[in-house]
Automatic annotation (TrEMBL):
It comes from the Eukaryota. It holds the Pfam family F-box. This is F-box domain-containing protein. Residues 13-53 form the F-box domain. It comes from Rubus argutus. SUPFAM superfamilies: F-box domain. InterPro entries: At3g26010-like, F-box-assoc_dom_typ1, F-box-assoc_interact_dom, F-box-like_dom_sf, F-box_dom.
Length: 378
């Protein structure tokens, strides 16, 4: 016993050794361990330690049983949903947190819109980059724009395996009589320089001129899906964009609907549902070279209705696809049914209830955002 106490004291007195041990602990555990002592608080709060931990853990693991829930147009704000705990006010550390809305989740960081409504993007507004694990945030304003310009999209790009710094991409389009607008400006904000640079791309074909389009980050590019199911992708470092308009051999949105779109396991995934068979659908995967979509999984939810009769035709309960880059992990699909969130294994077809909910309101993939633990600085 005395030897164990002496060994613990020896480690505690050796700050370099203590740092090396702490670097191997999960981010959420380290946040809790700040209360152990002033020494631990000083070490774990140090930006250099946070950077080292982020570099050592560049791919934060997504917790499939914990995510953020953001309802567009409500005043209650986002919720944090977990099988362990739930919180209706997860962003109370932000000044004036009323009316914030989550726009995107990217490798542990969140992009928030700091206003009560997303109805109009023609007035000045502020955004936040938030690390919900550490309760850190950074608020910024969009780059200056002309009176005729409209904000078409704002998207976050963060990949700690490539850089500790994140970027924000803002798409501005001038209002013209033609569709789409002829004049596009792309603003790129860097957390390294804390400044914007704006470049023109007059030939860029963007999905919409009237509605805000959320972006999805994947492998160095921001990706946007149009309502007609074609994909625009913009390589941030190379400064070039491309369009994928072929849709897996079908008659595009005429016969099928695209009701879930996101990144998982380093790939873009899309859920495509036949309008006549809403409980039968395909999970598509985009090739990393953007050569086209392919069917990754075929799903039939009808057998699930025995265990979960709440699933019925006409209900769009998809939250997101979860696929780990490690092929040993089982890919899963998270679904929301009244008062429950369940996980459907795309390989062995097994079902597992993840957590209970206090609401039966129908939500979809635009309302749910990944939760990942990271100490990344904002």
């Amino acid at each position: 016993m005395q030897n164990s106490i002496a060994a613990a004291e020896s480690i505690g007195n050796n700050e370099d050794l203590l740092k090396q041990l702490l670097l191997h602990l999960p981010a959420q555990s380290l946040v809790r361990f700040k209360c152990v002592s002033k020494q631990w608080l000083s070490i774990i709060s140090n930006p250099n330690f946070c950077d080292s931990h982020t570099l050592q853990n560049p791919n934060p693991k997504f917790s499939s049983a914990a995510f953020f829930w953001s309802r567009t147009g409500t005043t209650t704000g986002p919720h944090f949903i977990s099988h362990v705990r739930s919180s209706k006010r997860p962003f109370n550390f932000i000044p004036d947190p009323q009316g914030i809305e989550i726009l995107q989740s990217c490798n542990g960081l969140l992009l928030l819109l700091c206003r009560s409504s997303i109805e109009s993007f023609t007035t000045p507004r502020k955004f936040c980059i938030v690390n919900p694990t550490t309760s850190q945030y950074f608020q910024f304003a969009l780059p200056p724009k002309s009176k005729s310009a409209r904000v078409l999209s704002v998207a976050l790009a963060f990949d700690p395996s490539k850089s500790l710094h994140y970027k924000v991409v803002c798409i501005l389009g001038s209002v013209t009589a033609r569709f789409p607008p002829l004049h596009i400006e792309i603003g790129i904000y860097s957390s390294q320089t804390r400044s914007w640079r704006v470049c023109e791309s007059n030939d860029m074909w963007f999905p919409s001129t009237g509605n805000f389009v959320p972006g999805v980050y994947c492998n160095g590019s921001i990706n946007w899906l149009s309502r007609f199911c074609w994909l625009v992708h913009y390589d941030i470092d190379a400064g070039r964009y491309g369009v994928v308009d072929e849709f897996c051999g079908d008659n595009r949105a005429v016969e099928r609907d695209c009701i879930c779109f996101g990144e998982s396991g380093g790939n873009l995934h899309l859920i495509q549902v036949k309008s006549s068979l809403l409980n039968q659908f395909d999970v598509l995967e985009m090739a990393r070279d953007y050569s086209g979509w392919s069917v990754k999984y075929r799903v039939d939810l009808n057998p699930m209705r025995v265990a979960f009769p709440e699933i019925h035709a006409g209900y769009y309960p998809f939250l997101f696809v979860h696929v780990e880059e490690n092929e040993k992990e089982n890919p899963s699909l998270l679904l929301h049914i009244p008062y429950k969130v369940i996980s459907y294994n795309l390989r062995d077809k097994s079902i597992k209830k993840l957590c209970d909910l206090v609401t039966s309101s129908q939500v979809g993939w635009r309302d749910a955002y990944h939760y990942m633990e990271t100490l990344a600085c904002v």
